[in-house]
Amino acid sequence: MTLITIEQVNELTRERLPFTKPYAFNVLQLKHGEAKVAMPANEEILRPGGTIAGPAMMALADYAIYVAVMSAIGPVEMAVTTNLNVNFLHRPPPGELVAWAKLLKLGKRLAIASVDITARNEDSLVAHATGTYSIPPTREIQSNG
Amino acid sequence: MTLITIEQVNELTRERLPFTKPYAFNVLQLKHGEAKVAMPANEEILRPGGTIAGPAMMALADYAIYVAVMSAIGPVEMAVTTNLNVNFLHRPPPGELVAWAKLLKLGKRLAIASVDITARNEDSLVAHATGTYSIPPTREIQSNG
Amino acid sequence: MTLITIEQVNELTRERLPFTKPYAFNVLQLKHGEAKVAMPANEEILRPGGTIAGPAMMALADYAIYVAVMSAIGPVEMAVTTNLNVNFLHRPPPGELVAWAKLLKLGKRLAIASVDITARNEDSLVAHATGTYSIPPTREIQSNG
Amino acid sequence: MTLITIEQVNELTRERLPFTKPYAFNVLQLKHGEAKVAMPANEEILRPGGTIAGPAMMALADYAIYVAVMSAIGPVEMAVTTNLNVNFLHRPPPGELVAWAKLLKLGKRLAIASVDITARNEDSLVAHATGTYSIPPTREIQSNG
Description:
Four copies of one chain form a homotetramer.
Chain A: H1 6-16, E1 26-31, E2 34-39, E3 46-47, E4 51-52, H2 54-73, E5 80-88, E6 97-106, E7 110-119, E8 125-134, H3 139-142
Antiparallel strand pairs in A: 1-2, 2-6, 3-4, 5-8, 6-7, 7-8
């Protein structure tokens, strides 16, 4: 069972992560330790030639991991990325992308996740990422937030 | 000697990389295989609590590598990132950041670079990245562009 | 269909990769773009306290990717790793480990793979890796080998 | 000032890290947060064609980071690698390699380092790595060891 609802994620994102606004992330699905997040194509993230800018995919991967972490430990504002490694596999078409983040490990101090990014409704990967989040020691308190 | 001028980088960025606009990247210095790029703090990349959003730092690292690649091979529109690995070290203060990208290898097909990111006028690192760019086979032609 | 047999992998490994001998790698299964490789525990790779040394897991991941690449393009001696990123998740017990490598991308110049490492007959991951191999331009000739 | 001597590193390596024996690592220099480690060429790590096997370089990078961590926090047996990312740049000649590890961050829970690997007495890089170690919470006690 997820420890945060899509509504809670949306609210926390709106209030605490204003820099994600241009990406218009849309949480599609939440399970314990898993999150599926869509990113619509829009002018701000398109490259000429009709593909999605790499940094937008990195932002998507990072956000999807963050949501997956919260699905497993509850709302935690202060979790921070310590490492993100992204392999770009194929140029995506200029449409919506979907990231599927899964926790590979949830420790007391670190959460490690993998992320598969595909074009929506397609199977073939456009990018694969792994990321590490540092979990604040006081998360029990914060997760009441 | 750099094979691209700051003016050329700025023009190419404006015309071909419109998604970088919110970051207002500012190339400070260019040498053959090296680029120093500043990113001013602004509303769009700040996190509440007063630090810079991780994805903005990833975008900065990626862009600085791209500029360093062009300093060594000339203007190349189609070079693409194949891998980016970022370690976030310290939360930066909410001010300007500077990325210093250096090519570690420039092969016919791959360029690999490291990037140090610091707060402006400070020495201590806020992030360290390494990235790989795939260089198009026809770059000789394109580099006349 | 795999383009190399387990026997061919074993022979090539014995002849061309003598440094892998201490690991006693054992290819369990091959499909096109996928390889399952076991590494038995032995004195040479154990750490006191009863766990497997990290570098042995890195060697296993690297080898499994190499075999997966050959399953898709045939025997290629000169393919070389350009990047390997490993996340260590849990200390493995002091027994046999199994790596399952899958190509995420097979381009003309680069192959990118992910690797899941588990203890044999267990599901939970002990490590996750991604790796990039550079494929030699003359592979058509070599793959006759 | 380093918090561990070369003699202490050698003793700890011999007693606690027997799997490193084939590599014959040789600590050349120690400063607070920095370590220079040599790895002689030998039959066990050579590839046919006369280059050093990638996994041996990964083992060298990992070990050099471990020594750099101990130079800054004292002898700590239980520090473990959580992430290692290696970029292979040029095929090294079949001779001695030197790794120079420097801590980029030393936190309470994580140490992050970069490693430059060159052929001995040469400047050009053969590999660049970054690694993360998790530092045990009880290190104050262990560092008396």
